[in-house]
Amino acid sequence: MNSGADHNTLVRRQERVAGLLHRLALESASGPPQSLVLEGGSDAERRALALHYAAMLNCADPDRTRRPCLQCAPCRQILDRVFNDLLFVDETFYEEGKRQLSVKAVRALRPTWGQPPRGDGYRVTVFPDVRDLSADVSNSLLKSLEEPRPGNVFVLLAPQRERLLETLVSRSWVLTLAWPEAMPPEPKALEWAEAMVRFWSSGRDWYARTMGKPDAALAENILLVLQAALVGALSGKTDIPLARELAKLDSAGLRRFDLALDKARQALAARPSPVNPGLVLDWLATRMI
Ligand SMILES: [Zn+2]
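Above are the sequence and the zinc ion SMILES. Below is the predicted complex in structure-token form.
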């Protein structure tokens, strides 16, 4: 259950994208795009915006400028994810024993997409985590998105668009959420990021960490924390301790770190063979010595 207050907080952090979604949903003469990709921001923000968009497309408020009102029955049901015309394709749709979406699971959804929505708005199918789809699943999804599906819209959520098959991206409208710099960093990721920066000067206490095989989600969060600290260092926001540390680098050093971060992100997102997260972090840690 997603409380209205939490929902509003998440959406407010991404006001610019929320405004763009409003235009796509309600002001476009040709209707909303059939396929939309939301990338960037945090996982919680992407999910909140996807539901916000679904609410815009189904809100019962007669005044379109007020949609989503978040008070009417469709709006409330969407926030609670119990709305008839909302398919939130999370783990509950996976085949038994599978850790991600399978071709069979996508096929099983096709008959539903062939039907018009049950209500007066749009059926919104959200894929909340499409970061590691195999090429087979991506292609199966692509086939479904390419066919005209009157009354259906699809929303794909991913940390970065590189995580999606290029053809999926090229057929979708892509909106990029702001970096989550104003968000409190994830504590474990912050601890790792601080250890990395200490390692630059001490040369100690790093490799024992990566031997513990950090997973891709942790590595991604560490990169987010470092990116936020870099943005802080570049804009003189010294209230973030890690930004203060990074601000000790000269401008060439900051630039080098920016490029290294970008490479690390790409390595983690590389498909079909992402680089091992521990290796990516080791590489990044040694880049700055
Ligand atoms: Zn409403």
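Residues 59-61, 68-69, 71-72, 74-75 surround zinc ion (CB under 6 Å).
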